[in-house]
From TrEMBL:
The keyword tRNA processing does not apply. The keyword Cell inner membrane does not apply. Belongs to the tetraspanin (TM4SF) family. Its main location: membrane. One of its GO terms (biological process) is auxin-activated signaling pathway. It is found in: Membrane. It is a multi-pass membrane protein. The chain crosses the membrane at residues 6-29, 41-64, 70-96, 237-258. Keywords: Membrane, Transmembrane, Transmembrane helix. GO terms for cellular component: membrane. It comes from Salix dunnii. This is Tetraspanin-3.
Amino acid sequence: MRTSNHLIGVLNFLTFLLSIPILGGGIWLSSRANNTDCLKFLQWPLIIIGISIMVVSLAGFAGACYRNTFLMWVYLFVMFFIIAALLGFIIFAYVVTDKGSGRPLINRAYYDYYLEDYSGWLKERVDSYSYWRKISSCIRDSKVCGKMGKNFNGVPESADMFYSRKLSSIESGCCKPLSECGYTYVNETFWTPSGGVVPSTDCNTWNSDQEQLCYSCNSCKAGVLANIRKSWRKVSIINIVILIILVIAYVIGCAAFRNNRRIDNDEPSGEARMTKSQPSRIHL
């Protein structure tokens, strides 16, 4: 059916356009919390898949419109692996972000984050010294904690006002001590110890020095994981939609490929060929 060629041409043009959000998703992941140079292991799979879909969509578009059998064969061959890779990435993203979330607090609008709530490959990756050194450095350089300060008519934010704020996971995990530590609020990033400090690693690691804060705390790592989890889930929704479209395009592409081969072999579409000029007579 020649209709399949036109349809696969239209679908490949659409998949070319839809590959742009995949590339955008990879770039968006890399820009979360200004961690562009730190989380390359997260965005590169999406960027590679997005570029591959762009190139293959152009090949499929040309192959269908110009009825080029070779281009269609290349298109179907590569598209199969792209679909498999995208499916694998979606499954991988959901598996590694399956566990972990912030813990709600009494009389607080924000959450506290604990590294032990997370598990698996992503936790081990972020918890790695070599990677965490880069990530924490980028968080520090992004000045995300320094941007938390608020003034109302020249008056600094009070403790009650701060407690009612909805902080991001990185702000909560990296810029302040855990609530269980019992520190006394002075301002958004300056807290003083009190007599009821809970003896824990994070409580002892916290430092009001603006260059240290809680960048070395496990709560900061957990906050980064929560941020990654939220970002990956959003990008995965786009990937699922694109995967469905790619599968439909692949099925129609198979029909277009058969149509191109039929035309190359001078086989009229829908016309059956007889092996004998005349049917044999039955002799009684």
